[in-house]
Amino acid sequence: MNVTESIAQIDQEDLYPTRLPDAEQITDRRDPVLWSDWTEDAPISREEAERYREDGYLVLKDLFSREEVERLIEAGAELRAAGERIRSDDLVTEPGLNEVRTIFRLDEHSPIFRRLAHDRRLAGVAEFLLDDRVYIHQSRLNYKPGFTGKEFYWHSDFETWHAEDGMPRMRAVSASILLTDNSALNGPLMLVPGSHKRFVACRGETPERNHETSLKKQEIGVPQSETIVRMVDELGLDAATGPAGTVIFFECNTLHGSNGNITPFPRSNAFFVFNALSNRVTAPFAAPRPRPAYLSRREPLVAIDPIDGPITG
C-alpha cells in the first residue's frame, strides 16, 4: 500500500485542532513528510531527500545561473520601487514606516517571477516532495530593509494555513529564493530542525480579520515561549544562509522565524507556497471566514506545468 492510499483511509476530520480555548497542546504529526519514494529519476539526491525528511528543510545552491539571479534581483528592485502602484490589498509596509515589507501575489505582478514559480527547478522539486501536481497557494516578495527591518516571530505556516485558510493536511512546501546575500547578521530565516514532526496547537481564538494585524506582527497562532525553549533545547537551531540565488525548501509545519535587521545590508527573497492539488483548501478550521485570495488562493486553481530552460526577461 502506498502513502496516498493509506492516507485516503483516514477520515477527513480535523486532524490538527488548534486555536484552543484553554491551553496549548503538542501532538505528533499524522502526515508523511516526504510523500514520494526516492528513485534515481528524482530531482534531488537521496541524501537531500533524507535531509528534508529529517530536518524539515533543504538549502540548495547553484540552481540558477548568475545571469538568472541578476535578472531576478533587478525585477525585485523594480517591484519595490513601484510599491505605490501596487494594489493596497497586496502591499504590506513596515510597522510605523512607509517602506515595503511584502508584496503578495508576486506571480501576478511580475512575468519573470511567474516564470520562476513554474520553473522545474522549483515546481518539479515540489511535485516530488508532495507526490502530486501542485498549484501556488500563496506567493510574495519579502523585503527586510537595512536598519529598520522588523522580525518575523516564531510560527508554523501550516498552523495558520490550517486554522485560517482551511488547508486540510501537511502536504505543502515553501520555496524561498534569496535575492540578496543572507548572512547570520541580516535577519536570515531561522529554523528548528525536526520541529515539523510535531504539531503545536496554539491557544487563543482567532479574532475577526486577524490577518490585517498578523501580517505586521503575529500574536495569535504562535507557540508559547516555553515551548520554543524546549524545542530548541532538544532539536537545536539553524540559520539558512547563502548567497543570492540560494533556494530554501521548507516543509509547511517547520517552526521558523527571523530576527530584525539592524545592519546596513537589506534582506530580500521571493517566496512561493506550493500546495498539492489534492490538498486544496476548504472552510477554515479555526477562523470565522477564509482569509482573502491574496493570502490563500482558492479559485480558479491551476496546476503548474513545470517549465525547463533558462529564465529570461
Model description:
The protein is of the alpha+beta class and 313 residues long. The protein has a single domain (56-279), classed as Sandwich (Jelly Rolls). The chain is 25% helix and 21% strand. It has helices spanning 3-8, 46-55, 66-81, 106-109, 111-117, 120-130, 157-165, 211-214, 225-235; strands at residues 25-28, 57-60, 91-93, 100-104, 134-144, 152-155, 172-178, 189-191, 198-201, 238-240, 247-251, 256-258, 267-276. The protein has a 7-stranded antiparallel beta sheet with strand order 2-11-7-13-5-4-3. The N and C termini lie far apart (45 Å).
What features would you highlight for this structure?
313 residues; Jelly Rolls; alpha+beta; disordered N terminus; four-stranded antiparallel sheet; single chain; 21% strand
Strand content: 15-25%
The largest beta-sheet arranges its strands as 2-11-7-13-5-4-3
Let me know the largest β-sheet.
7 strands, antiparallel
CATH homologous superfamily classification: q2cbj1_9rhob like domain
